[in-house]
Amino acid sequence: MDLLHWCLLWLLLPLISRTQKLPTRDEELFQMQIRDKAFFHDSSVIPDGAEVSSYLFRHTPRRYFFMVEEDNTPLSVTVTPCDAPLEWKLSLQELPEEASADGSGDPEPLDQQRQQMTDVEGTELFSYKGNDVEYFLSSSSPAGLYQVELLSTEKDTHFKVYATTTPESDQPYPDLPYDPRVDVTSVGRTTVTLAWKPSPTASLLKQPIEYCVVINKEHNFKSLCAVETKMNSDDAFMVAPKPGLDFNPFDFAHFGFPTDNLGKDRSFLANPSPKVGRHVSWRPKVDIQKICIGNKNIFTVSDLKPDTQYYFDVFMVNTNSNMSTAYVGAFARTKKEAKQKTVVLKDGRVTDVFVKRKGTKFLRLAPASSHQKVTLFIHSCLDTVQVQVRRDGKLLLSQNVEGIRQFQLRGKPRAKYLIRLKGNKKGASTLKILATTRPSKQEFPSLPQDTRIKAFDNLRTCSSVTVAWLGTQERRKFCIYRKEVDGNYRVDQRRRDQNQCLGPDTREKSEKVLCKYFHGQNLKKAVTTETIRDLQPGKSYLLDVYVVGHGGHSVKYQSKVVKTRKVC
């Protein structure tokens, strides 16, 4: 038996003697039994260089012991509170000479040992109160029995304690860089990018290091122990330490102590803490996330909520010892969602609307005569657009609109309409919208089902082309324009020219051919033709036909590219 266990045995004998008085002839055998139990099961002994995890009950102090066998020995003691502040102190216990003997000779009576224990006073070396990871460090400590006493006055809590007499260079805790802060390098609506300086431990001491990032909405954490305790917390149970790291110091029944009430007042459910590794641990109940990312020192956190404050912590973990060190955490608030600008529609006025690719636009209408029906004209100039209309929150319609569509909305006193436009995947969309309670002659011009322009190849010459298009039963004004284009008429140019909302006012005066009024009662015969003259031989021309409504709004037919003959 080593010196430390002799000292612990000396401290424990008076306690045991209070509850059981053995005959003198059995005293030596009883002491041998205690020595065996203390040697193999005493969790109050801190092994040199090992981190001990344990559980501390409120207002119940706990003591740990370790021995420094030679003077001028380096000493380091670290205590890590997990989920509550701790009061702890380190003291050097002065032992009587009998405690350091080899156990030979007649043992002293138990009453005398008890009196010696009362007379022994330790020298306090260090004390601390709080929830920081705090340590005591001495490059030259005297030999003796050292005691760490811990107390929690707030609640039952987890903690870790570590003691070693090895040089500082052999410490298993990773070292922080000279600047231990976590920096927030960029903030978006759902993402935050973090960066920190790497630990010198990996490069200088060749220790395997892994970084773990912790995200939560409450506060920063000062230790990975606090994070894991929080992640394993449950409102119905208290969580015990990791099995195997702290164990019952004695078999109480073996020494005659009653066991009926043990654990009834301090019962808890064992639940081992998660191991650190390349994984993501998520417990929605406590809303905390831990992500271990290897040895990278930059990381982007994603899937965050807009306009929400988050706290970020980074921990270095020695993957050999599973011991960790915390950087100085940071916090950031994600950006707000971009506010949707709501366009106000005026009764009887055409409004131009631009919707980005896969974008969304909102329009608001509050007609003065809200008891009347509202006529809604929507002209999707390029591609199909999804349209939703709600009245006072109630969905009235949801349709895809291509070209010109007309909708009748039922009126209601003091009704307010919200129109939602959603673009498609192809590209940006342009629309013209008219909402009115007096449709009369303000509506958009009607179009035939077929809006193509047909060119007659057999009527094509070196200086002219003849084209035709369909009309409607209503008398409308039609204007035709021409523009010379080169032979490499690109797709993007063709798409831009197909925009039906680009009216004659966007064309050069020199491009105008003519305007005329036309209609037909029989839709099958409502066809008009026009010959376009003064063209150049072998040239390509872009032709456009516009139909103009009573309110001045025009709609363009599908563009047509024609080419004159080169030789006639």
Q: Which key phrases capture this entry?
A:
Immunoglobulin-like; Jelly Rolls; single chain; 568 residues; six-stranded antiparallel sheet; 32 strands; mainly beta; seven-stranded mixed sheet; 4 domains
Describe the structure.
The structure is a single chain. By secondary structure, this protein is mainly beta. It has helices at residues 3-17, 27-41, 110-119, 200-204, 224-231, 491-497; strands at 50-56, 62-68, 73-81, 86-93, 122-130, 134-141, 144-151, 157-164, 183-187, 192-195, 209-216, 280-283, 288-292, 298-301, 309-318, 323-326, 330-333, 342-344, 350-355, 360-365, 374-391, 394-409, 417-422, 429-436, 454-455, 465-470, 476-485, 512-518, 527-532, 540-548, 554-556, 560-563. Strands 18, 19, 20, 21, 22, 23 and 24 form a 7-stranded mixed beta sheet that branches. Strands 11, 12, 13, 15, 16 and 17 form a 6-stranded antiparallel beta sheet that branches. Strands 27, 28, 30, 31 and 32 form a 5-stranded antiparallel beta sheet that branches. A hairpin with a 5-residue loop joins strand 30 and strand 31 (554-556). Helix 1 (3-17) crosses helix 2 (27-41) and helix 1 crosses helix 3. The longest helix has 15 residues, at 3-17. The chain is elongated and about 120 Å long.
